[in-house]
Amino acid sequence: MSPRKLMFVLPNLFTVTSILCGFYALTLCAGEAAPAQLHQAALAILFAMFFDGCDGRVARLTRTQSDFGMQLDSLADVVSFGAAPGLLVYKWALEPLGFVGLLLAFSFTACGALRLARFNVLAMRSPQGGGGNFFVGLPIPLAASVLVSMIIAHYAATGGEPLEDSARVPVVVATLTLSLLMVSTVRYRTFKDLRLSPRSALVLALVLASGVVIGTRFHPAYVLVAYSFAYLGFGLLESAFLVRHRLVARKAGRGAAPAMVLLDEEEGEDEDEDDGQRMA
């Protein structure tokens, strides 16, 4: 086998390693899982996110993007960021709720799979690729990161004590909200258009400074929670302003504005694709 063909294996190795981390998290959640095992499962999913983020970059650097890599990446995401977090949140907080808790955990996994299927369909409609500045719907790795960050923060704050009954309500709301956001048309920035400038450097410094303040004043485990919910809120606010702008445009243009809005929505869907392996 030529060295060039071997290069195509490299990004897929990162993807398969992501699957391994997700599978390991599933094994930790099986049976009567202790809080320490659930914490380890959450950490395993974090490692899966790291490898998932690397495979696309490696594919672009080596110019080995392929349809096979794209499909493998989606299958890996279903396992590592759909099934594993769904079972993890069920064992951590939703199991005492019985069938309702099981349904909520399944909804997270199912909505993640639906989001990935929609992503692949949109990507196949525009095979020229190129990536975009927005995701249509919350990407499944980021949805999983919200649940994982909550579990890690709770374990760090309580030392592994079981979740109190009063704390299950926020977990239920978070799980349901994340499920709906994944299948929604809310647009989330990819930050691929981010360029180094005085303004972007200032924003980055403020983000890092806020993380330092949260980590030193409260607990380092809370930093990931804060960043995750900040990204969720930023996407919702930006989409709300976008909807308001479109409504104003419709009122101003009457007949011409709706066609322009429809064109913007189609372009937004095309922007959601990426080269080879990527975050979905």
TrEMBL record:
Q: Which UniProt keywords apply?
A: Lipid biosynthesis, Lipid metabolism, Membrane, Phospholipid biosynthesis, Phospholipid metabolism, Transferase, Transmembrane, Transmembrane helix
- Which GO molecular function annotation, any one, does this entry have? CDP-diacylglycerol-serine O-phosphatidyltransferase activity
Chemical reaction(s) catalysed:
a CDP-1,2-diacyl-sn-glycerol + L-serine = a 1,2-diacyl-sn-glycero-3-phospho-L-serine + CMP + H(+)
- Any coiled-coil regions, as ranges: none
The record's annotation in Pfam families points to: CDP-OH_P_transf
Pull one GO CC term from this UniProt entry.
membrane
Q: How does it sit in the membrane?
A: Multi-pass membrane protein
Query: Transmembrane stretches, by residue range?
Result: 7-26, 99-122, 134-157, 169-188, 200-218, 224-243
What is the organism lineage in this UniProt record? Bacteria, Pseudomonadati, Myxococcota, Myxococcia, Myxococcales
User: Can you say what this protein is called?
Assistant: CDP-diacylglycerol--serine O-phosphatidyltransferase
List, alphabetically, the InterPro entries matched: CDP-alcohol_PTase-I, CDP-diaglyc--ser_O-PTrfase, CDP-OH_P_trans, CDP-OH_PTrfase_TM_dom, CDP_ALCOHOL_P_TRANSF_CS
Would you kindly state one Gene Ontology biological process term found in this protein's UniProt entry? phospholipid biosynthetic process
Q: Which family does it belong to?
A: Belongs to the CDP-alcohol phosphatidyltransferase class-I family.
Q: Where in the cell is it found?
A: Endomembrane system
Q: Which organism is it from?
A: Cystobacter ferrugineus
This entry's Enzyme Commission designation comes to 2.7.8.8
